[in-house]
Amino acid sequence: MKKSTGQNREITRNWRPATQAIRGGTARSEWGETSEAIFLTSGYSYDCAGDAAARFARTQDGMTYSRLQNPTVQMLEERIALLEGAEACRTMASGMAAMTAALLCQLSQGDHVVAGRAAFGSCRWLVDTLLPRFGIETTTVDARDPQTFADALKPNTKVFFFETPANPTMDVVDLEAVCGIARANNVVSVVDNAFATPALQRPLDFGADVVAYSATKLMDGQGRVLAGAVTGSKAFIEETLLSFTRNTGPTLSAFNAWVVLKGMETLDLRAHRQSEAAIEVARFLEGRVPRVLHPGLPSHPQHALAMKQMDAAGPIFAFEIEGRAQAHGLLDALTLIDISNNIGDARSLMTHPASTTHAGVSEDVRRDMGVSEGMLRLNVGLEDVRDLIDDLDQALRQVGL
Ligand SMILES: *Cc1c(COP(=O)(O)O)cnc(C)c1O
Q1: Where in the sequence is the domain holding 294, given as residue range(s)?
Q2: Which of 243, 264, 285 is the last residue of a domain?
Q3: Count of domains in the chain?
Q4: 100 close to 241: Cβ distance less than 8 angstroms
Q5: Partners of 81 in the beta sheet?
């Protein structure tokens, strides 16, 4: 293997995460470019008909069609797998494509899923609406208590599906306990790790089987493209997931993969810097507003657990004020922080989940999850934290807080 073009996984696997995030998976062309190339091609050509046949028979290495493989996309998959400490990764066109594929590729009519009740609105829609339509039973539980997963087990339970910290209530799930219950009962645990990314939390280290991502969030990190990823064992990715995604086509574009590759180069730096800033902002809000939900603060009921399984608590947290009118009033008074429902961006963004990200789930489900009318969710970006605090201070004063 030429040093300028190839990588040896035996070597790259031993790199530390910050190094992997910049160099992992790089596969240079014959030009030896330093930054990854974008291969915007849908197809590939062959030297002879026999080669084409051999590629399709998989007796010859190489690519056949970009719904199946693409060099730029493959670099990102290798990079995410290395960072995650996973054997394999497949990227998808969005986080929801990743969640849908991670579930549907392994579930059939008659199976049962246990899911954390506090979840991203679309993840709840998969569990509450889509899966039951195909004869897949689902139960939602308070994932803060691992015993609720054990209690919900049935003979046909195939999958546990949850996120930690959860969007937007910041519920923390005990990864070791819940994934342990899954292993002991032949259940596959699927963890949505979008809020943390492997820079802050590696669920596989705590016994998770499959880790799925919205790479739209911290991995891109600059609010540019939609992307998703599923990581796990080689057997799960190649034998269970691959036929589903190759034939249904939720494929990530090479251009978007390239943008996320660039984002990954600064992931470690951003995730830690934004985590530090988020703690500072949360400390400012504590005492000034009725309730702050931030797993990095000692006031969070699951602070110790969060710190056991996370390197840092991440850029996102929630807080509560008095009802929808005051929450909307605070958003309208902001002059720097944008009203936006995205997260993981280098820009600070705030949203009112009950009327945006969680407007699609019923009021009952919102109450059950703990999404109150006065809850606001803040993504703390990379701006000077003093400017963010100044903006919040003047906006809070405008609504009488
Ligand atoms: C954003 C998000 C998703 C969906 O990802 P998209 O890239 O928007 O499709 C799934 N889960 C969580 C926790 C998210 O924050």
Answers
A1: 267-398
A2: 264
A3: 2
A4: no
A5: none
Domain finish residue from 221, 246, 264: 264
Average the pLDDT over 116-134 and give the result: 94
- In 11-170, beta strands by DSSP E: 88-92, 112-116, 137-141, 157-163
Question: Looking at the structure, do residues 379 and 250 belong to the same domain, yes or no?
Answer: no
pLDDT tens-digit map of 295-337:
999 999 999 999 999 999 999 999 999 999 999 999 999 999 9
The rounded Å distance from CA 164 to ligand 1 centre is 13
Residue 328 contacts residue 200 (beta carbons within 8 Å): no
Q: Tokens for 141?
A: 């539980």
Instruction: Tell me, yes or no, if the pTM score tops 0.85.
Output: yes
> Which residue of 122, 316, 341, 349 sits with most ligand 1 atoms within 8 Å of its CB, as the best mutation to test the pocket?
122
Based on the fold, state whether residues 19 and 101 are members of the same structural domain. Answer: yes
Specify whether the CB–CB gap between 99 and 215 falls below 8 A: no
Instruction: Identify whether residues 215 and 287 lie together within a single domain.
Output: no
Looking at the predicted structure, is the pLDDT value of residue 195 above 60? Answer: yes
Residue 167 CA to ligand 1 center (angstroms) comes to 9
Confidence bin at 11 (pLDDT 50/70/90): confident
